[in-house]
Amino acid sequence: MRPRATPTRLLLVPVVAALCAVAACGGAGDGAPVEVAGGQSAPAPSVVEDPTLPTLPPVEERADDLFDEQGCTQTGPDAAACGNTGAEIDAAAAGDSTEDWRTLAGFVGPHWNEQPAAGAPVVLEQTVAISATGAWTARGLVRNETSGQLDGIEVTAQLLAADGSVLASPRATSPVVAVRSGEPVPFELTAEVPAEQVTTVQWSAAVPVPGVGDGSESVASTAPSRDAELTTFWSRDHSGADRIELYLYRDPDDGSRPYLLFGSVLNRGAATASPTVVVAWLDGDGRVVAVHEAPVADPRTGLPAEVLDSGAGSDFLVVLEDPAEGFAAGPASPMLWGLA
Amino acid sequence: MRARVARRLVVGLLAVAVVVGVLPVQLVAPGSAPRGVTSAEAQTTTKTFGAEPLADVLYWADQKKACGLSRDQLAAMMMSPTFNETGAPATVSPSPMTLSRWDNQTSLYAYASKTQYPRAFFHPGVGMWQFDSAGGWPLTGATAINSYTSAQQAATVIASRWCVNPTWAYALAPWYYCGTTTICQDNYRAVFNGTSLTVRSDPTTTRYGGMQQRSCTVAGLGAVTCWFVDPSQAQGHDVFNLPNFGPAPISAPFYVVESGGREYRYWLKQDTGYGVSISADKPVTANARSALTWRSGEVLCDVTASKGDTCATLRSAPVVARNADGRQEVFVIGPDGRVRHSWQLAPNGSWSTWRVLGGSLSGGLSVITSADGRLELFGRGTDGTVQHSWQGSPGGLWSTWTSRGGSWPATSEPVGGVNADGRLEIFVQGSDGAVYQSWQLWPSGPWSAWYSMGGSWPVGAHVAVGRNGDGRQEVYVVGADRALYHRYQVAPNKAWAPWSSLGGSLAGPVTVGYSTDRRQELFAVGADGAMWHLWQRTVNGGWSTFTSRGGSWPPSAEPVSARNADGRLEVFATAAGGTVWHAWQGTVNGSFVPFAALGGSAVGRPGLGMNADGRLEVFVTEPDQEVAHAWQVKANGAWSGWLGMGFPAP
């Protein structure tokens, strides 16, 4: 039997989360995020402006022998059905509203905004799940609302107590780098603060400063290919009965059965070193209940691939060992990003 | 032991790269088994596979064979997951119609409720390979069942992965037990002896696996090819049909329609037994768990089987008028929105067959006679406008349908009236609840813009139009307080008095009849279910109080009335059981006799006409959507039985 999901520790509680504008909340202090637009000290966003939707190549190219010359589906040796043409399938996959689940190059999920207007990254408050007990934890999506691609987005949450005092200001960068205009990406924040003490959260999002703070280099020159075709093959719920032993994974001998999500990626862009895929799971309310980054495997060894060449495809396997995350992910819908 | 259909499986679009030669893979020589499977290990146990599906597997295996795989090797690899995906034993072929039973997310149930309509369930994994919508495959429920299209996908995936890494563990990893266990290798050995395929061919399992191709009409999509999936008709091993086979329910029969890049599934109430029909749709490549939109499904007609909510359902009750030469003519809106009509071939005579008069109407058909005796039709167009067609001369040919504009809600039913000077006028309820009017600037001339007559009437309030003895028009609407309201022209062809109440407690719309001296006589079903009557006490004058004419009527009963040749009023209505009843005045302007059954089996409001010789005639739509009629055998006299007039639409 497929196990039933149990309540996650990420209980969704209403928090007075004030989403402040970047200009008001960001850009203060050494090593702090800088404003994307406006402030004099802000570096210009990297990469060219490209607000077009990154659609996949036409399905008639990807599955050419499934369609005839008119774009109709070949349903038999001498039969075709024209209810859906390849072009219509492509258009429907790309979606036409922010709420639609879109299948795009390097992205599968909702909340892509084709007409970003804020001019700065914006935390999508309605997607944020915050822990009710234990250490304060939040997971959610932040969207690039600028007209250009960003080299990652840093999210900061200012946690306030009932008396207005600042308890902590956890900060984290999305695991997805090379964030395209209009694209939502996940984030995960934790703070050593009891969740019960937090009464107000003030969110801010900005572009991390290349080379500031941690001494890292700009990622622009090594940005991974986002021109990837993502798919999932199967998943196994946490505590699933079947023992899995794949070429790239085997279940622990202790009998534990973590949640698994197995899929594949085809790199239609430039060769990418240390390729990974990022997955975020949305629950029925549209909130992010888990975020995980998994390496793309070398198809021969099953080990993390050193590079995924242009035109090459390979598998990925997401393993959620945390039972709470695994149980939460089971009934949830996975969003996918690649390559990260 | 019952085999278990695999779980959430094989998802994924063509994300598996066809990268022959990109990686330095060690290829296996043609004719040998894949790595890990040797000819010597091939077992004598064989398997059964549908004849057409086998042909499709072989065709695509031949098309996609690569990297050392022969056609039969690839075919055997393609077949190897299907036995476990479908649970098929050796003696029965895998069912192409196999529907997943292990995915039980709430979003796959109608309206995301596991209890409301559990058999309107969207199985995300479909077919022998259980291609799951989560993978972004360009397959619908229909093409995942169809072994021609699904085998193409299976061949592409397996062959391309084999070229990257020619091992079972890699090539068949999308079917997780294939990559984890030796099940698929065992199946491979069972259908391939190292030289040729040994699978048994089952001619009773076809490409569609019991799915039927049909023709459907769907509101908003038009005429489409549809695929009827009835799990009870599955060919091959149909263990997935067992009630408790998996945690997910087995769907009631459903239809798959492909249109505009989306997959639609429809569950008709005729198939589910539920009180409503249901549909769900999503982009073809989207995950059903996150992308389904659930809607009312009362939009599909299976034309092939004449089944569905909109199938043969006429969109209007019959409306009747008499041509200038005395021949009656009856009109209905067909299920496709086109008006049909039938007419007497001679005054008082027999009737023509039904002919198409065109148009694209959603309802609200009405007919009036212009001052020069031409018939004029009005209705609500499927585009929301008022549509108009008219005879070019009395009894002559009909015009094409012409829009009179506006954007009226689906519940609006335009009705026509005639001014004293012969100018026609249309009245219709707007989306703001007000009544709107538009009129001809001169008889047979152009039309004015639409103007609000005010009021805020309940949604779907019917507007009735009457005419006073002096030619002043008068309109009636039942308000939210159930009282009857009216406005009237203060002088013929002139302005209108404000809305005012005539009282009453009504449940349905009024119908307007006339006494011999041109006094208006109104009938409507009251809140108490009785038929109520209101009349002008004098020509152009004030009104009586409401008087009950008895009976027990549903609120939807819309009475119609007419005057007998001798001047006695007669009123007709359809009771809850479909019987038509009538009541009439014993003498001109006298009291009414109690309602008496006229028989018949009617759906909705009757239509009422009069022959040239003064005989009344009633027309109804029967439950099978045939129009039937009954008539007075002589003026003012007894009635005939009911006789069918044929089906206005097939």
Can I get a quick summary?
The complex is a heterodimer of chains A (340) and B (650). Chain A has helices at residues 22-25, 59-62, 86-94, 323-329; strands spanning 16-19, 73-76, 79-81, 102-104, 107-109, 122-130, 135-143, 154-160, 166-168, 171-173, 184-194, 200-206, 228-236, 245-246, 249-250, 259-267, 272-273, 276-282, 288-295, 307-308, 313-320, 333-338.
Describe the structure.
The complex is a heterodimer of chains A (340) and B (650). Chain A is mainly β and 340 residues long. Chain A is 7% helix and 36% strand. In chain A, strands 1, 8, 9, 10 and 12 form a five-stranded mixed beta sheet that branches. In chain A, strand 18 and strand 19 (288-295) form a beta hairpin. The longest helix of chain A has 9 residues, at 86-94. The radius of gyration of chain A is 21 Å and the shape is globular. The two termini of chain A are 35 Å apart. Chain B contains ten helices and 40 strands. In chain B, 55% of the residues are buried. In chain B, 12% of the residues lie in helices and 28% in strands. Chain B starts with 47 loop residues before the first strand and ends in a 6-residue tail after the last strand. Mean pLDDT of chain B is 90; it is low at 1-44. At the A-B interface, strand 2, helix 3, strand 13, strand 14 and strand 16 of A face helix 5, helix 7, strand 7 and helix 10 of B.
Features:
heterodimer, A: 340 residues, mainly beta, Immunoglobulin-like, five-stranded antiparallel β-sheet, 22 strands, 36% strand, globular, B: 650 residues, alpha+beta, four-stranded antiparallel β-sheet
List the helices and strands and how they pair.
The complex is a heterodimer of chains A (about 350) and B (about 650).
Chain A: E1 16-19, H1 22-25, H2 59-62, E2 73-76, E3 79-81, H3 86-94, E4 102-104, E5 107-109, E6 122-130, E7 135-143, E8 154-160, E9 166-168, E10 171-173, E11 184-194, E12 200-206, E13 228-236, E14 245-246, E15 249-250, E16 259-267, E17 272-273, E18 276-282, E19 288-295, E20 307-308, E21 313-320, H4 323-329, E22 333-338
Parallel strand pairs in A: 1-12
Antiparallel strand pairs in A: 2-3, 4-5, 5-22, 6-7, 7-11, 8-9, 8-10, 8-12, 13-16, 14-15, 16-21, 17-20, 18-19, 18-22
Chain B: E1 48-50, H1 51-64, H2 71-79, H3 82-86, E2 125-126, E3 131-132, H4 141-145, H5 147-164, H6 168-171, H7 176-180, H8 183-191, E4 200-202, E5 212-218, E6 222-229, E7 254-259, E8 262-267, H9 269-272, E9 278-283, H10 288-291, E10 293-296, E11 300-302, E12 307-308, E13 319-322, E14 328-333, E15 339-343, E16 355-358, E17 361-369, E18 375-381, E19 386-390, E20 402-403, E21 415-418, E22 424-429, E23 435-439, E24 451-452, E25 464-467, E26 473-478, E27 484-488, E28 500-503, E29 511-514, E30 520-525, E31 531-535, E32 547-550, E33 560-563, E34 569-574, E35 580-584, E36 596-599, E37 607-610, E38 616-621, E39 627-631, E40 643-644
Parallel strand pairs in B: 1-4
Antiparallel strand pairs in B: 2-3, 5-6, 5-11, 6-7, 7-8, 8-9, 9-10, 11-12, 13-14, 14-15, 15-16, 17-18, 18-19, 19-20, 21-22, 22-23, 23-24, 25-26, 26-27, 27-28, 29-30, 30-31, 31-32, 33-34, 34-35, 35-36, 37-38, 38-39, 39-40
Helix pairs in contact in B: 1-2, 1-5, 2-5
